[in-house]
Amino acid sequence: MDTLIKDLKPVSGVALSSEDGDVLEVSGECDADTLCAVTSVSAAQLSKIGELLAAGSLERWYVVTEAQTYYASERPLDRRRLVAVGEALKSPEATSKGLHKAAR
Length: 104
Prior knowledge:
Layout: H1 2-7, E1 11-18, E2 23-28, H2 32-52, E3 60-64, E4 68-75, E5 80-87, H3 93-103
Antiparallel strand pairs: 1-2, 1-5, 3-4, 4-5
């Protein structure tokens, strides 16, 4: 997990969470309990939207605010989620892909 923070420069904190939002592992600076809980609730809603659109299963997503970017990468095989938080970016796609690659 420490390697992720070094490799993904904009990321300041990373956590591994259960599907239910329980923190399993954390590295860096973040409120892991809140991050994991909120991504768990958000993932359920985003999955429902994906089903309605027949878009397939949710793999990764991110949300950008004025202050930060929040990332989530689903790990369906072991029913876990890798989540991260970092600086606000105009284009977080590369960081999201890097986190998703590490989650596999």
